[in-house]
Amino acid sequence: VQLVESGGGSVEAGGSLRLSCAASGHTSSVNCMGWFRQAAGKEREVVATIGDPGTTTYTDSAKGRFTISKDNAKDTLYLQMTGLNAEDTGMYLCAAKLHTYGEYTYWGQGTQVTV
After folding, report:
1. pLDDT tens digit string along 76-99?
2. Fewer CB within 10 Å, N or C, the chain?
3. Which residues have CB under 8 Å from 57's CB, separation 6+?
């Protein structure tokens, strides 16, 4: 499975961005996908995940502001982000795994978000 993120950029506080993650390869085997954030000097953290059949989870800071979704026909994962603030700054990475348990196996290169 290959993952390619896009949609990052610089935005003022309070603004919005929509990130996309295009998946290719054996995407039918993917069970869970997620968005992670890597901020400078901090550990990578999960932002939001989506499983099969569409169960979502969010980190506390993302609840009410971010929405994760998936278009299976396009093999694309999205993260709609609103009300952005400086703490949302970081490299956003898309990840996928084949099972509901275990570590994420497939990772994209990331797309930078700067607020």
Report:
1. 999 999 999 999 999 999 999 998
2. C
3. 46, 48, 49
